[in-house]
Sequence to fold (647 residues):
Amino acid sequence: MEYFLTEQQKMIKSLARKIAEEKILPVRARLDEAEEFPWDIMKALAEADLFRVFVPEQYEGLGGGIFELCLVVEEISRVCSAIAVSYAASALGTFILMDYGTEEQKKKYLPDTASGKKLAAFALTEPQAGSDAAAIKTTADKVPGGYVINGTKQFITNGGEAELYTVIALTDKTKGPRGASALLVEKGTPGFSFGRKEHKMGIRASSTRELIFKDCFVPEENLIGRAGMGFLLTMKLLDRSRPGIGAQALGIAQGAMEAAVDYTERRIQFGKPLIAQPVVQDIIGNMAAQIEAARALIYATARMIDSGVKNYTEQSAICKVFASDMAMQVTTDAVQICGGAGYMRDYPLEKMMRDAKITQIYEGSNQVLRNAIAIEVRKRKGRTV
Amino acid sequence: MNIIVCIKQVPGTTEVKIDPQKNTLIREGIKNIINPLDTYALEEGLKLKERYGGKVTALSMGPPQAVEALREAISMGIDEGILLSDAALAGSDTWATAYALAAAIKKLGQADLIICGRQTTDGDTGQVGPELAEILKLPIVTYVSKVEEIASGRMRVQRLIEEGHETIESPVPAVITVVKEINVPRLPSLRGMMKAKGATIPIWTIKELGIDPGMVGLAGSATKVVKLSYPQRTSQGELLKGELASQVETLLARLRDAGLLK
Fold:
């Protein structure tokens, strides 16, 4: 399919692919097995300027947006989505700052995240607050000159590895979600430490940790936007970032189809390659159709977001739901048609199937997102605009 | 420090075809790449610039499409690329190539270090570096696996030899050829790629180099490929069959017969 990428977008895509194939492919199985954070790869992505693609030019970025981010995430996920999510989580950790930060805040932090010298992370989830994000308990009490944070964040991607954290905490406990605020916390701030590192089913090379705040003081200037805006900013952030999860799922599915095609081409059964058997062709044909549909949807949504439209809750949720369910199906089918080989760790497909699962769960479970889509559909009485 | 890296564009395949008339490689219709060993030369140039400051220029000789190799070098961070291209240069052997490169290096002015890859993957001769040093009357160290230091007009480098390393000191300016053990070549960066896309790459003809057409091309080549032949496959492998124990017996007997085992 021709998606009419600009010269710069083509460069971004080809460079991300080059790094994925030359630097990531040789180590992905080892990183997965060892649950090792891929610092060497992060450095390679940084040196290639890939952390700059979604950052405005005045903060040493290359001035792209969600579409450019999606192109990189797709290409890296095609080879290893654990690395892609570590990259994308740094974008997630800086988007609120990029959209609502003051000039001083942006000048202070964005050049270092754009160069990839520092990774960022976003911290919302807590032990008692997942899909019910409004149930967060972490507090940030106003004191002279700043805030004192107390509480625990859970399952934070890039936890422990990132230098900069956007943390959602209650600055006014009496107001519920309307009392939440977004605060920047740097690694090394007294009172801020890391809890256990999680052992996961998939995306194992990525780091997922608890963040623990015990009387952690941050100065007033670390508040992003106004106090009380935290929940609203979070909802807007996730609307904006969900196509990235779609792109992650898309890349996993693309990689799985390629691996399945390569294997079924070589594997001879009943006197011909598996890929020449109608039963296998039926599955591969369906994979290709689903993958291309997801790609068209994600690219269109990302371009729509970058064009500056105000509300895209529905479209971005559709991207994430469709692509993640698609990736789960495609990777499961890919394992199936490769049979025993698909199930073995010597082949990449079992990893891709494990990696695909998380895309149906994080940044809004698909069930919660379908509810959100239905609410939007109801608002427009099901009609197209 | 002023560094010049000589690179060559080569076919990105090992299945090259030979022109039966000219006995040269047919380059049309094949995706071309920077000679893989030259990427180590580029990386070393960039590393030395990071260490000592200065400028790194990439120099190549070839058909007009070889500007792409120089653009790729710029996307890695090389400051400037220059291509030597002229119909009169076509068919140059290693000596004529070195002659033209030497003329370009003289035209560029003072170079502190000239870096070449150990050899190319198409011609595989490994001669251009040493010949270049000879023409320029500069010292040469081949097979360099580490540049330890360049200071006060001298360099100390390690040279890869069969059983280890030699440490060699030499005055600079000098020519070195590098082996792949020396570094890990970087990939391009996006900002480098953008710079490369818009970069002007001068193309120097023999007129600009001020060289006599008789000194380059087929006319200026000291060697001529008179015939190319492919090696005959004279022996074939043999696969032993039967039980493992009897295979081992057979193998041992064969090795003893051949005098390889006592």
Remarks:
- Residues 121-227 of chain A form a domain with the Butyryl-CoA Dehydrogenase, subunit A; domain 2 fold (CATH 2.40.110.10).
- Chain A is about 50% helix and 15% strand.
- Chain A touches chain B through 17 residues (CB under 8 Å).
- Chain A has a mean pLDDT of 97.
